[in-house]
Amino acid sequence: MSTGNHYLGLLDRYRDRLPVSPDMKIVSLVEGDTPLIPLENLSRAAGHDVQIFAKFEGLNPTGSFKDRGMTMAVTQAVHEGTKAVICASTGNTSASAAAYAARAGIRAFVLIPDGKIALGKLAQAMIQGAVVIQIQGNFDDGMRIVKEMADAGPISIVNSINPYRLQGQKTAAFEICDALGRAPDYHCIPVGNAGNISAHWVGYSEYAGVKPRTQSCAFCTDTCRFERPAVVSNRPVMVGYQAAGSAPFLRGGPVDEPETVATAIRIGNPQSWDLAWAAVRESGGWFDELTDADILAAQKLLAEREGVFCEPASAISVGGLLRDIKAGKIKPGSTITCTLTGHGLKDPDTAIKQSQGQVLQIPAQTDLVKRAILDRL
Ligand code: AN7
Q1: pTM flag (> 0.90)
Q2: CA 364–ligand 1 middle distance (angstroms)
Q3: Cβ atoms 267, 140 nearer than 8 A
Q4: For ligand 1, is residue 113 a contact (CB within 6 Å)?
Q5: What is the DSSP letter of 252?
Q6: For 77-136, how does the pLDDT look when each residue is reduced to its tens digit (9 = 90+)?
């Protein structure tokens, strides 16, 4: 389907840097190419001459960054002749897996935690025809079960332990470099299962023509992309933020009962542990944690000051960055990108709950409405 300059998704755009062969039938919803939004108000308020950009991944087709990895993983799964995909999920992976499976005409099985999944994500998985299995446990329990089912039949795991997922997700780093003409000085990103921070480091390293010291992908023999010419000459410092009640990277090991309002990152036993540590160490970065109150405050700040509505887990990248700028951990004059991983509409309950009192109840009379407005001008 060639259509001139029509953007056809990230597997098409970055095909020469991805494990996409000519005989593959690409399963795509035209994901990627998300906006890199300058956060001018927050940059000004932060001072220190910083330039903050939000990579708004919530504007992918299913409303989260997961679509980048899913187009690659489902394309590969279909190529291998799989009949179904399966994942454990805090919500966004299941929404994305359901969509791409629907597109490919295969079945999706999604394991979600008991309660604690944002309503929008559940709605997506259900309407897109996934078999939704709610387990009496959390994400980590679901992940364990999915891994134990690896050889159950012609069914592909599409969690980020599937290396094709990370390959797709690395394209976010490419897009940022393509937009800025260089890599940012810092990249701030929420961390749950830790696939995304790992994938970004692969992408940045590849674009800088540097092979990460830790092996970061499964394609090092036949389809290694690190030999390709460099596009940029720098790599960012990688900074990963976790919710305080769900922060294994800060605790130094798995957390048994993770808890946070940011349900997307309510994960106690991250699967990409080593890769994420490698990204942070090799880049000279760090992990830090935010309380639920700080996460919600950051979500509100982004919405109120910049008009950008992301889900709580996403806002942690901006909340953490602003704190680190204040603390003097970010060099003055830096260019910083923050990944906003998912759309705010995924979780309307939390948004409404923390905006209480903002709906005025007024009789349907012009004078009363007028007065209410004039009082607030
Ligand atoms: C909005 O959907 O793990 O560190 O099962 O949905 O790569 O896991 C979601 C993760 C950040 C963390 N922001 O990314 C799932 C799932 C949002 C997310 C993360 C997730 P990783």
Answers
A1: yes
A2: 43
A3: yes
A4: no
A5: T
A6: 999 999 999 999 999 999 999 999 999 999 999 999 997 899 999 999 999 999 999 999
